[in-house]
Every structure is written in C-alpha cells, then in structure tokens.
Amino acid sequence: MAACLPSFNGAKLDDVVDYVTYVFVPAFFVWHALLVPDRWSMVVAGAMLLSSAYGFNRDDAKTADHFYTGFPSYWNIAAFYLYAAGWPEGVNAAVLLLLAALVFVPIRYVYPSRTPVLGRLTVGLGAIWGIVMMLMLWRMPDIPRPLLWASLVFPAYYAVISLGLELRRRRP
Hints:
Elements: H1 10-32, H2 41-56, E1 67-69, H3 75-85, H4 89-102, E2 108-110, H5 119-139, H6 145-151, H7 153-170
Antiparallel strand pairs: 1-2
C-alpha cells in the first residue's frame, strides 16, 4: 500500500474513524436523545467532543505497553448505558461531565484486546459482555433490569483491572 500511496497514514485515518464513531456520534445522540437537561446539552456534548479531541491527540494516548492514557473515549458505551438505564437527565449530565474530566487524569486504562495482564480473561469476559450487550439492544426499550445489572460486570472488571494495574505501576 505504501508504494501506491506513499504519504498515506492509516493510523491517522483510524483515529478519524474512531473519533467519529466513538465520540461524535455518541455526542450527537446525547444531544438529540435528550439524555441531559436541554440547557446543558451543548455543554455536555461539547465537553465530550473537546476532551476527546485532546485525548486523541496526546502523544501517549496509546502507550507502547498497550494502555490508554486517560478515559479512553468510550462514549458510545456510556451513552448506551445512560439511555438503557433511564436515569434522570441531571445524573446523566454529571456522569458524562465526570468522564470528560477523566480524559485529563493520567490513569492508564487497559487496551482490552491487547492487554498483557489477564489477556485471555479480559477478552473472554469482553466477548460475553458483547453478547449481553446485543441481547440488551434486541430487548430495547424494555431491557430487564437483571440483564442491565449483569451487563455491568465487565465494565466493573475493566475499571478494577485498569486501576489495579495503574496502582501497581505507580508503586516505588
């Protein structure tokens, strides 16, 4: 491919596609699905867009040892859960603004498909979680609460393993 397009950088295109699908589309959804109070919709969507623009452009956004630095712009997942849970608009706004702030906090989050620690467990749990998410999508808008709560096992695991590895890394 390099011979055909010598100045083409697939990594940049990957970042553009990721930004559109993981950031722009969910921000647009948050704005138009009325997930946050109307007076806050532009602020929250703007925080999602701008914080992730910063996050995507960090030199250390993806580390050599396969971690993301700062909240890794999983806005599509956040928007899905907020929509599925049916929480009050003010709670949704607070959650999204907290996640936007976490983009700037230099905590390293696991790159799920490339993690060197507990890789098979992470990928296995991630596959099960993907199936559960498809079931939830199929059941929308009437998602059984037990299914919704069970689906949070993987995100909780992801947060715990990421924070645990970060704390271990920071120990002297």
